[in-house]
Specification:
The chain is of the alpha+beta class. It has three helices and nine strands. The protein has one domain: 60s Ribosomal Protein L30, Chain: A. Strands 1, 2, 3, 4, 7, 8 and 9 form a seven-stranded mixed beta sheet that branches. A two-stranded antiparallel ribbon has the order 5-6. Strand 7, helix 3 and strand 8 form a beta-alpha-beta unit. The chain is globular, with a radius of gyration of 20 Å. The N and C termini lie far apart (43 Å).
């Protein structure tokens, strides 16, 4: 085997072994909600894998009243983002830690109105996927989930 090929093979094998070790040694933590009324929910508000945090989707619900905020897509978008901020804060993070957003709209016609609010909060411009789906939780207009890195 030529020295160059041997060196290349050694580098590739080191990378494979390091990746395999990282996957085996990454602790996964499932966090209960910081909200007392959601402590028994059948999902975690946040799942941590290493320095990555996967947040459950948030809708425009005021958690104090457990009702959707009034005011349509823009009010619901703002409340959903505030809910995300609250969850991130529980783990010492802000919206600046968000690297990926998935946005589900009940009506794709609401895209421009949603985006007006969204761009005010996500100034770092994380990667984003947006689509429409029929029948969101609690008859909401929007749901947003994020992945953050600490």
């Amino acid at each position: 085997m030529k020295p160059f090929h041997f060196a290349l093979l050694s580098i590739l094998m080191s990378g494979v072994m390091a990746t395999s070790y990282a996957q085996e040694s990454t602790e996964i933590i499932f966090y209960k909600s910081h909200e007392p009324k959601k402590q028994n929910a059948p999902f975690s508000d946040v799942v941590q894998a290493g320095n990555m945090y996967f947040l459950a989707g948030q809708i425009g619900m005021d958690h104090a009243t457990r009702t959707l905020v009034e005011g349509g897509i823009q009010a619901e978008t703002e409340q959903a983002i505030k809910n995300i901020e609250d969850v991130l804060a529980q783990h010492g993070m802000t919206l600046d830690n968000v690297v990926k957003c998935t946005v589900i709209l009940a009506n794709i016609e609401d895209f421009a109105a949603f985006n007006e609010v969204y761009t005010q909060y996500f100034t770092k411009k994380p990667a984003r996927t947006t689509y429409a789906a029929k029948g969101l939780a609690a008859k909401s207009s929007i749901e947003i989930d994020v992945i953050a890195v600490k």
